[in-house]
Design goal:
Elements lengths: L6 H9 L3 E6 L4 E4 L1 H7 L3 H4 L4 H4 L8 H7 L5 E9 L5 E12 L5 E10 L1 H23 L3 E5 L5 E4 L1 H7 L17 H17 L3 E8 L5 E13 L2 E11 L1 H56 L6 H33 L7 E4 H19 L2 E6 L5 E4 L1 H17 L6 E9 L2 E8 L30 H11 L4 E5 L5 E8 L7
Parallel strand pairs: 12-14
Antiparallel strand pairs: 1-2, 1-5, 3-4, 4-5, 6-7, 6-10, 8-9, 9-10, 11-13, 14-15, 15-17, 16-17
Length: 497
């Protein structure tokens, strides 16, 4: 631009919407077009002779010309800054500053062109604010949010997605995301996804991720087609962590199963109680009737001493049987309360065996059953209650004789087993069915059997006594091949190595 602007150029500069400003070599205003007047509010007369930093209150423009001259091979400098209008309001300006050469190519000043970019800056700020809000929303979302292209490859994941399946975006590139799906669900989920994608339809599945840290994460996955200008561009999807819900469902199922089992057990216990009460009542009635009948006979005159002694013997046996039944009921009650008393003293099992066999031998002979015992040639001493341990043996032997046919055999054996003494009572009876084995030590188990052989408390009492001694008891049986009841009692000292 020379010293005098031709009229046609003058008119052109006056009517342009941008602010065109000429500065002398001292950076003072020599030309201020109408665009500058509209933008800033000062007239050309008001602006003439002033510097832009002072007029516009923009210190960033100070010495701009000097800086431009110092930069070799650069004739124009552009930048954006905040400026002020005459009324004090501010605006964003995109400015360019060019060197204005003189007639011989020497610089005689500068030309500044200013454009109001306030609207663009506000739009950019709003966009950045919107993007920041969107990023914060995506980062804080309780849902995993992802975007897939039309081939099913992930192009965006928010942090929740990575938290759910353990893969970052690079690790999930291509079809790597399918590797995070639980192997048992993978084929179903991948197949349904590609069917939906090929048809351009929404997709939804419930499945599991096998997280890289080993956790199993249940998710509800959903996706919908995404369109740009009416054309499909991919899928946007969500992943909801439903692991707590699935855990609650599993817990509920377990509770329902447990409730059902408790109900079954309660019903079984009720039946067993009713059956046992019937057996106990029947036995007590028989014992009492026997006693009453014998008493009535004894009240008659003319009985011989032999007849009197016979009736008294029957009364004694009925009373003893009644006492045994009552004792069994009380012992079961004590076992259930954990108050069964054990009076410990040294017990020689070999001697205990001999005494039990002598007691039971007459009954075995009467039934035509061979009864034998064998004890290993070792120390069989234990610390226990001899009366209660004998009762265990008598109960087991009585049970074995009861269910062993004539010409059968019942054996009583003992051996050292580590620091314990292990006792086995084996019979050659018909055995116990597999479904009944878990219940043989239940209260009143015998009461369910067709033979109705007693109240069914013997094995329950035996188990309670053994466990009160710190031992354990179990049964082995094969139908048709007999049954073995085994129990252990801690010895007074460990067996030699």
């Amino acid at each position: 631009m020379s010293g005098v602007t031709p009229p046609n150029q003058q008119n052109l500069l006056e009517f342009t919407h941008e602010a065109v400003i000429a500065l002398d070599e001292n950076e003072r205003i020599t030309f201020w077009n109408r665009g500058a007047e509209r933008m800033y509010g000062w007239t050309a007369a008001e602006a003439a002779g002033q510097t832009l930093p002072d007029l516009l209150r923009a210190d960033c423009l100070r010495d701009a010309g000097r800086a431009l001259r110092s930069q070799a091979r650069i004739d124009t400098r552009t930048h954006e800054f905040v400026s002020s209008r005459k009324d004090g309001t501010t605006l964003w300006v995109a400015a360019s500053l060019s060197i204005r050469p003189g007639g011989e190519g020497q610089p005689v000043g500068f030309v500044a062109v200013h454009r109001d970019v306030t609207d663009r800056k506000h739009a950019e700020a709003k966009l950045r604010e919107s993007e920041a809000r969107m990023r914060a929303l995506l980062d804080a979302s309780p849902l995993g949010i992802d975007i897939m292209d039309l081939t099913g490859h992930p192009v965006f994941y928010n942090p929740k997605c990575e938290e759910l399946h353990g893969l970052d975006l690079s690790g999930a590139h291509g079809r790597g995301w399918t590797e995070a799906i639980h192997p048992e669900d993978r084929a179903r989920v991948v197949s349904s996804w590609y069917r939906a994608a090929e048809a351009g339809k929404p997709w939804a599945e419930t499945y599991r991720f096998l997280h890289r840290d080993g956790r199993v994460v249940w998710v509800s996955g959903r996706a919908a087609p995404m369109f740009v200008d009416g054309h499909p561009a991919g899928y946007v999807g969500t992943l909801e962590d439903i692991t707590p819900l699935k855990q609650a469902e599993a817990d509920r199922e377990r509770l329902l199963d447990a409730e059902h089992e408790l109900r079954v057990q309660a019903e079984r216990a009720t039946r067993q109680r009713d059956e046992t009460l019937a057996v106990v009542a029947h036995d007590l009635r028989n014992f009492i009737n026997t006693i009453l009948l014998c008493v009535a006979v004894l009240e008659r005159r003319g009985l011989s001493e032999e007849q009197r002694a016979q009736r008294i013997g029957v009364i004694k046996r009925a009373a003893v049987a009644t006492e045994h039944l009552i004792r069994d009921l009380l012992d079961v009650s004590r076992i259930e309360r954990g108050t069964l008393a054990i009076e410990r003293s040294p017990v020689d099992f070999a001697a205990l065996f001999r005494g039990v066999v002598e007691l039971m031998q007459p009954r075995a002979a009467e039934l035509g059953i061979a009864l034998d015992h064998a004890v290993a040639e070792e120390d069989m001493e234990v610390s226990g209650d001899p009366g209660r341990l004998m009762r265990v043996l008598l109960n087991l032997l009585d049970n074995a004789l009861k269910f062993t046919p004539p010409q059968g055999r019942v054996s009583l054996r003992a051996r050292r087993c580590g620091g314990d003494v292990e006792i086995a009572v084996e019979d050659t009876g018909r055995g116990i069915d597999a479904e009944a084995l878990p219940h043989v030590f239940d209260r009143y188990w015998q009461a369910k059997r067709a033979s109705r052989a007693g109240a069914g408390l013997g094995l329950t009492i035996a188990k309670g006594i053994v466990e009160a001694h710190g031992g354990r008891i179990w049964v082995e049986s094969t139908p048709g091949r007999g049954t073995v009841f085994r129990f252990t009692v801690p010895g007074t000292r460990a067996s030699p190595l």
